[in-house]
Structure formats: C-alpha cells, structure tokens
Specification:
The structure is a single chain. This protein is an all-alpha fold. The protein folds into two domains: 112 residues, no CATH class; 59 residues, no CATH class. Helix 1 packs parallel to helix 5 and helix 3 runs antiparallel to helix 4. The two termini are 26 Å apart.
Length: 198
C-alpha cells in the first residue's frame, strides 16, 4: 500500500494522538475504535489487516500493550514511504511514524497521570476522589467492550471462523474461572494459528 503524507498530515497525526492520549482511560487500547475510524475509515492510511495485525502483535508480544500505537505509526510511515520494497526511505518514514504516534500518545497522558496521581494520593480520603474512581470503572469497561467488538467484526463468518470463536470462548472462560495468566493463552492461540487450526 502506498499513500502520500505531507507535513500537515504528519502534524495532524501527531495532534490526533495527543488528543487520544487524554482519552486513554484504562489504557491506550480503549482508544482503538477512534484510531480505526481515523486511520482506516477516514484517511485510508492503514488497511484493515494492518490495523488488526498491529493490535494482535502488540498484545502477543511481551511488554506494554501500548506498543500497538507504535506499530500503527510504523505501518503509516511504511505506507507513506511506498512499502517495504522501496528501500531505506520507507523505513526512515516508518520510524518517524512510530515516534510521532508514541510521543503523541505518551506525552499528555504521562504528564497528566503524574500530576493527577500525586494530587489524588495527597487527597485520597476526599469523597470526590473516591467517587471519581468509582465512576471511571464503567467507562473503562465500555471502551474495552467496544474495542473487542471492533476487533471481532473482521471475523463475522461463523462457518469460516468457528474455531477462532471457540478458542475465544474457551480462553474467556479459563481466564474468568481460574488464575491462569492470559499470556499462556495467547501463546497457545499463536501455536494453534501456526499449526493452521485457527
């Protein structure tokens, strides 16, 4: 995929991630539906498979799951450079895309989190602080449900995707009813995928 990005597009990408950073309550994954709308639906800078692949790879990799933001930026930059076959120029733009999106995502939320947690810790007995914490829980759950719905929309043919849906249901039950770590299940899913079973 090849796209053209001007300076205004790069600044718009940075500004979009700056604003998304402040909406990332409960983690950056909660903003995935808005990223999808912006990157895939509105601007067509990423394909559906690049978007879903960025999230899947970041979730499966060890480390913070916010890495999907860098992967999306990497793919936008790579597409702006004409794809991986066009040489080093595409990889420079891919690195710039990863940097722009990660800086935009981490800068505002990092400063806000540092400031707010220091204030909340000093005022943790106030009723308003306790009410705010309790009120944020349903918002975070709602954002995570929307993200799950968006990611599952790519697999909406039960006759073809029944193994994936079955694996998802089994993994959900295991995580819900036991103390098995989710990374073990991701590893099992990757193994089943490599074997061609899902």
């Amino acid at each position: 995929m090849s796209i053209t990005l001007g300076t205004a597009d790069w600044l718009d990408l940075f500004a979009r991630y700056l604003s998304l950073s402040l909406l990332a309550v409960g983690g950056a994954i909660g903003t995935a539906p808005e990223m999808h709308r912006y990157l895939v639906s509105d601007h067509h800078w990423l394909t559906e498979s690049q978007f879903n692949g960025s999230i899947a790879l970041a979730q499966a990799a060890p480390g913070p799951n916010v890495l999907f933001v860098a992967l999306m930026g990497w793919n936008v930059g790579l597409n702006a450079g004409g794809g991986p076959t066009t040489g080093w120029h595409a990889y420079v733009l891919a690195g710039a895309g990863a940097f722009v999106t990660m800086l935009g995502m981490l800068l505002p939320s990092g400063v806000l989190t540092y400031t707010a947690t220091r204030w909340a810790h000093r005022n943790r007995t106030r009723r308003s602080v306790r009410a705010f914490k309790a009120g944020m829980a349903p918002i975070v759950i709602g954002l995570l449900l929307v993200t799950g719905w968006l990611l599952s929309a790519a697999h909406d043919q039960p006759a073809r995707d029944w193994r994936l849906w079955l694996l998802t249901a089994v993994a959900t039950l295991i995580v819900w009813r036991t103390r098995i770590h989710l990374l073990w299940l991701i590893g099992a899913g990757a193994l089943l995928g490599a074997l061609g079973w899902v």
